[in-house]
Amino acid sequence: MTIQRKLWRSCGIGAASTLAFGLFSVGAANADTFVPLPGGDITKVLSDGTVVNIKLVGESADINPSMGATPAHRNAWVSGSAQVTVSGDGGGKIFPGYTVGCQVNIAGGGVTGGAEGAQAPPNADGTPGASEAGADVGGELSLGPGQARSFYILDLEMPDDYGNESHKTRNAFKGGSGSVTWADETIGLSGCGGYAQARSFVSVEVETDNVISWVTLWGQPFSLG
């Protein structure tokens, strides 16, 4: 699965504007299909009374069912905006990403397979997956029947505590709200000769004076053809 950065990405504090493009190729045989998606909304009250709300808005996918002129290749451009609020001017970290499966049901959220990034994507119950330090964000992925893989869409370059270059798969925020917006992020899938699906997720780590907790919102699964 190849994840390429397309057009722009906006990460910031507070609400973020959303821009989605429908791309259409020439020729009926390889015509793209634009799919508007419903996004989602989840609210959770933590053990110390902190209220966390996650919204996924402006979500869409533009799907090309046959990249490389073979049924085993798929290509999709995905867009959306994750918006998070935490009561009491709390803060946290936003980890947006996607799960992709080949001939496997990903409606439950949890999948087998590794993650692309230092922090693995969430489990089905919303808790964080096992860490995979040293893994890269992006790269190519080939999936066979019954396989699934998750990845993060962010790759933020910033200095570490010692001034060295580091890459983060999350956007940190404080002051009660934060957001991440993406447009035309590419999902490339090869090696899957049967049906394939993908779905978005937004996993948020919230830290208060009394508790550290994770809340995850899953988007609606959509077909890659």
Automatic annotation (TrEMBL):
Keywords of the record: Signal
Extent of the signal sequence: 1-31
Protein name as annotated: Porin
Lineage: Bacteria, Bacillati, Actinomycetota, Actinomycetes, Mycobacteriales
Stored InterPro entries: Porin_fam_mycobact-type
Species whose genome carries this gene: Nocardia camponoti
Keyword Signal: yes
Gene3D superfamilies, sorted: Porin MspA (Ig-like beta-sandwich domain)
Region (Disordered): 113-139
Top-level taxon: Bacteria
